[in-house]
Design goal:
Blueprint: H1 2-17, H2 19-55, E1 61-66, H3 70-74, H4 83-92, E2 96-103, E3 109-112, E4 115-118, E5 120-124, H5 128-132, E6 136-139, H6 144-148, E7 153-156, H7 158-163, E8 174-177, E9 180-188, E10 193-194, E11 197-198, E12 202-206, H8 207-214, E13 223-228, H9 234-248, E14 259-263, H10 264-307, H11 309-317, H12 322-358, H13 369-395, H14 399-404
Parallel strand pairs: 5-12, 7-9
Antiparallel strand pairs: 1-13, 1-14, 2-5, 2-13, 3-4, 3-8, 6-9, 7-12, 8-9, 10-11
Length: 406
């Protein structure tokens, strides 16, 4: 233990005596670790933010929509869900707790008092709020009575208040949409932004009102959102939904589904998988920089062995063993690599926070403990691997030849 402590003290003294050279030697390690930490913390912060946003969509929610591949869309071949699908799912799938059809009528321009803007417009039923866990912060949501009577009422997102210069409490105000006046009955809770895009710039109108706007000859891209009764039976419910949809759409065995069933937790898992893949790929690329940094350490340590040949000879002449010399140079190489790793860690954190603060609405970075430990482990390993050769060279020196070295 005493030998280890003395070797470490000697290594730190040597690094301190050649500060600039030690810093330049560790620069490759510093850059590599800083890059790993900055990239990882930014991706992890983004992943956490997206996961939180998706959890807000409702973990027990399932969405059924038409399958439309890009190549089919380009050829003008589109699949549609039918209004009858809503009733069939409601009647034939037992585990559905709530069901809310939703579609977007074509016009997206909304006007109020001479001010116009574009917004997402949804036509849906009263169950939409329970399925999607979105509730009004002021006023009320559209009701079954509004839907049955196809009333011209609307619930708006808070961003629309700002876009249309509406009063802070706009309930009771009127706005113009699709050449018809709609009375605002509620304002939804604020949800913020995701990927820099507002989630609050929308207008919700009753489902039947939306159907009356588009007329009978227009087929909208309908989506059906559902909340299941038992999350543990989600897979069975998905299979039951798929079976009903295939029957209703008269699909034969071997025919490809013309619909897609998605759930919020499925989207979250997909994004987590994607972010983890990006993290590991970036980690592999930056690992090359660690290799370059290790080569730099080995080069400087070889130079150091040459410079301290007489010192090694003196140490051996007064009784130092080859193993003691090996340990001393190996600890010096590891110390250089680990100090570079610590500086890289601090620089990487600073870079991540700087980048996140510069990009508008970017979520705060998150530095996971495993990334810190992994960076330090790699730094130490690089020191050991690339310090072995010069340390062995120093340990093998003959004391007589070393003392004669000029």
């Amino acid at each position: 233990m005493v030998l280890l402590i003395e070797s470490l003290r000697s290594a730190l003294a040597s690094i301190r005596a050649h500060r600039v050279r030690s810093f330049l030697t560790s620069l490759g390690i510093i850059i590599a670790v800083a890059s790993v930490i900055a990239v990882t913390s930014l991706i992890q912060g983004l992943s956490q933010s997206v996961s939180a946003q998706l959890e807000g969509l409702g973990g027990n929610g399932v969405t059924v929509r038409a399958r439309n591949e890009f190549k089919d869309v380009m050829r003008g071949k589109l699949n549609y869900l039918r209004f009858d699908d809503v009733d069939q799912l409601r009647l034939r799938v037992d585990d559905i707790r709530e069901l809310g059809p939703v579609f977007s009528p074509a016009p997206s321009e909304v006007r109020h008092a001479g001010v116009s803007t574009t917004a997402q417009v949804f036509a849906t039923t009263a169950s939409y709020q329970d399925v999607n866990l979105r509730y009004p912060a002021a006023g009320r949501f559209i009701s079954e009575s509004d839907n049955n009577s196809a009333r011209r009422v609307a619930v708006i997102g808070p961003k629309l208040i700002e876009e249309l210069h509406l009063p802070d409490y706009p309930v009771g105000q009127f706005l113009l949409y699709a050449n018809e006046w709609f009375r605002i009955v509620g304002v939804m809770e604020k949800r913020g932004e995701i990927f820099g895009m507002s989630q609050d710039n929308y207008l919700i109108i009753p489902f039947k009102t939306g159907r009356s706007i588009i007329g009978n000859n227009t087929r909208p891209q309908l989506a059906i959102t559902l909340a299941v009764r038992d999350l543990a039976r989600l897979d069975q419910t998905r299979r039951q939904i798929a079976g009903v949809m295939r029957q209703v759409h008269h699909l034969q065995a071997g025919d490809e589904d013309d619909f897609v069933i998605e759930s919020a937790d499925q989207i979250a898992r997909t994004f987590d998988k994607l972010s983890n893949t990006v993290t590991f790929v970036m980690g592999g690329v930056v690992g090359i920089a660690l290799l370059v940094g290790g080569i730099g350490i080995m080069n400087i340590m070889l130079v150091s062995v040459k410079e301290r040949t007489r010192e090694i000879g003196i140490c051996k002449a007064i009784g130092a063993r080859s193993g003691d010399i090996l340990l001393q140079f190996l600890i010096e190489a590891v110390a250089l690599a680990v100090l570079g790793g610590v500086l890289g860690l601090a620089l990487g954190c600073a870079l991540a926070f700087a980048v996140a603060s510069v990009i508008p609405d970017f979520p705060p970075p998150f530095v996971p403990l495993w990334a810190v430990l992994l960076a330090m482990l790699f730094s130490g390993t690089v020191g050991v691997v690339f310090g072995v050769v010069p340390a062995s060279q120093a340990a093998r020196l003959d004391p007589i030849d070393a003392l004669r070295y000029e």
